[in-house]
Amino acid sequence: MSATLIIINHDGCQLLKGSAPAALAAAEQAGGCHVVVADDGSTDDSILYLATTHPEVEVLALPHRGFGATCNAAVAAAQTEAVVLLNNDVVVSPGFLPPLLDDLAADDVFAVGCKFLNPDGSLTDALGNRTACRWHRGLLYLHHETDPDLLTRTCTQLYANGGGMAFQRSKWLALGGFDPLYRPLYWEDVDLGYRAWGRGWRVLYEPASVVFHEQGGTMKRAHAHTQIELMSAKNAVLFTWKNLLDPGLFRRTLAAQARWAADDVLISTPPARTRALLRALRQLPEAARGRAREQRERVLSDREIMAVSRGDG
User: Most buried pick, 113, 119, 125, 267, via CB within 10 A?
Assistant: First the structure.
């Protein structure tokens, strides 16, 4: 199966010196694959570096619009059904590609996620492996498995980490790709995986497809920790408003979120969760439109999604 490997880049010239050669080597080993760098309006030497050092890499130079929009534009331009999305701070192992593409060949599979290791090969605090979730106190809580004994077999998971995932392009386009609701970043991949499950498509975890990820290597250079925390918390709230369709769970979610605000009303500087709630309210109409689409197109319930994504259904 041929595939397009897309590396998303913004001012990441130094990171590309690790990720681009590794992606090229993996594409050559697999055969029939090529590498594209989708550049999100970089102002550093990223494009010059690629042109002079790796001219075989196709560069898609785009205006700076952020991670989600850059991913969507790059996938729309791809010429293959199989697409692999990579962050510029992800270095792939030489043989990571064939297992991904083998899993992706099944008609009912939307996406396959890689096994993420830290640069030193450890799993400590690694994100993106065998993801699962639970609803609690008004939010979807995500779990990323780090026990090596539980990361040895191909299995279902909630979503594939956007920093290292393969997917069927036609299904991505049918879903509408990464939702701009979550701008500027975070939760786009969770939302996409959840919506895919809702349409009856599977998301898999593939431990044979190993990549090395400098966690937050791109984001930490562009955003302060407090900004990242607030953006993620805001998008976690928007996710519930858009995707939680079960009437009982949704009522309990809204009640829990209302209690946050009540608990924090006397605090002069509200904690991140309440500031995130207030910011999310600005995007309520947009979230409501996304919710209406989910109500029209979903074939699995929230409870079914949580069960089948962790292998219980």
Answer: 113
